[in-house]
TrEMBL record:
Matches recorded under PROSITE patterns: FN3
Alphabetical list of SMART domains matching this protein: FN3
Membrane spanning residue stretches: none
Protein name: Fibronectin type-III domain-containing protein
Domain Fibronectin type-III: 340-433
SUPFAM superfamilies in alphabetical order: Concanavalin A-like lectins/glucanases, Fibronectin type III, SEA domain
Signal peptide from the UniProt entry: none
Length: 435
């Protein structure tokens, strides 16, 4: 997965100057999307290399000053695209929050405005106002999960567009709840800041806010999201101690024969755990002295999902063996899938329904959490049924179950790269008929 914890701001138009930050996305855009690389946005140095997470409070965070008025007065640009990663949490019912704004539109002025109007509904609204006209789209976005959003619009002649195109995770949103434009008298306040929040900060996290001075095509948007998602890149970093081997200082010399032999032997032991050719590479060896040989290495897999890691973790953690060698487990961390199982609880809410809850997954190095898969079955059967919880809320109600029946229920967190480790099952029985 290409998206990670860093937060970066970029602009596809040269109106904002600033320090040149990480250029991975700009380089990729130039090579894969046919876009010209231009100057990045300014951002506070404290944000460099990290996502921005805000948890409410007064004020806003200024990302940039829109000196050319491309977002503050969108009619100035014939074609525009705005992209960002967003993870948000709703507030109380009836409470609104602004995520991104330009030109003080959060206060009724011209510009752009991304906000949630009502905390009781997982719906976001994007509004663009310019030239005596405003266009609004409202769409569903689950809370507490990362979503990639893209908004594009094109000026028609000297007037404002009649439509805004919205993409979620690389696909056009076709079931817009609101899609309309209006003419009217728009106040013209002298503001051109681009901000996170408005008079108050939202409860949200942001990553890769990007603006292009052209309209991305459907093909380009899909390709950008595929870039973020990436190909199979699952790998796990392992630290352990070979309890039967005495440390020798030659192991700290990468070019030494002892280093090469020990590295090759460990790679052979790792691959011996797999019947299929599942391992792409074993690399990044680092040895240190724990009286016995301590080692850190990286295992790269060809496939995705925890199922790829399971034989390795089972051997090292459960049996304290690596192939034919006795080991002591130190640490293991995967980059794109969850290795730690969820803690699941369940109770019956009626004779035909059960409420399942779980602890929220911890952070990943690079993976993007996208939901929880709930697996349930009759306690006396191995046939499993699957339900998907993609709202990010750690609770789900299973409905249309058999009355007064025992069920075994488990869950596993999902990322864009695959399924995480399944939890232990819990047993629960639906209520008696009529209860």
């Amino acid at each position: 997965m290409m998206l990670s914890t860093p937060m970066t701001y970029y602009s596809g138009t040269p109106y904002i100057s600033g320090h040149l930050m990480t250029q991975t996305i700009l380089k990729t855009n130039k090579g894969q999307l046919g876009l010209n690389r231009t100057a990045p946005w300014y951002r506070p140095p404290v944000c460099e290399g990290r996502a921005v997470k805000v948890a409410g409070g007064p004020g806003s965070i200024r990302l940039a000053t829109d000196t050319k008025w491309h977002l503050a007065t969108p009619i100035n640009s014939a074609r525009m695209t705005l992209a960002l990663w967003l993870l948000y949490q709703s507030r109380s019912p009836g409470v609104a929050q602004t995520f991104l704004a330009a030109g003080e539109q959060a206060n009724g002025d011209r510009g752009i405005h991304l906000y949630q109007e009502d905390g009781s509904r997982p719906e976001l609204t994007f509004r663009v106002t310019a030239g005596g006209r405003w266009c609004t789209v409202t769409f569903r976005v689950p809370q507490r999960v990362w979503k990639h959003l893209i908004f594009t619009w094109t000026r028609v002649g000297s007037g404002f567009p009649s439509h805004i195109t919205v993409y979620r995770d690389g696909k056009i949103i076709k079931d817009l709840l609101v899609d309309q434009c209006h003419d009217g008298l728009i106040p013209d306040k002298p503001g051109n800041d681009i901000t996170l929040g408005s008079t108050e900060l939202p409860t949200a996290s942001f990553d890769d806010v990007i603006v292009w001075g052209e309209t991305l095509t459907k093909f380009q948007v899909e390709k950008l999201f595929k870039f973020y998602k990436g190909g199979a890149n699952l790998h796990v970093n392992v630290s352990l101690v070979l309890t039967g081997d005495i440390f020798h200082s030659e192991l700290m010399k990468r070019g030494s024969e002892m280093f090469r032999n020990k590295s090759s032997w460990i790679e052979t032991q790792v691959k011996s755990l797999y019947k299929e050719n599942s391992i792409s590479k074993v690399e990044n060896f680092l040895f240190w002295n724990e009286t016995n040989v301590a080692v850190n290495f990286t295992v790269r897999f060809k496939g995705t999902g925890y199922k790829e890691i399971e034989p390795l973790e089972t051997s090292i953690v459960s049996t304290s063996m690596l192939g034919s060698a006795h080991v002591r487990f130190v640490a293991m961390e995967a980059n794109d899938v969850y290795m730690k199982p969820l803690q699941v609880t369940a109770y019956n809410s009626s004779s035909t329904s059960v409420v399942v809850s779980w602890d929220e997954p911890g952070n990943l190095t690079h993976g993007v959490f996208c939901g929880v898969q709930i697996l349930y079955r009759f306690n006396d059967s191995s046939q499993k049924f699957i339900a998907m919880a993609t709202s990010g809320i750690p609770r789900y109600q299973l409905k249309n179950l058999e009355k007064y029946t025992w069920y075994a229920i488990g869950a596993r967190p999902l990322t864009l790269e695959g399924e995480g480790k399944k939890s232990d099952e819990v047993l629960v029985r639906t209520a008696e008929d009529g209860k």
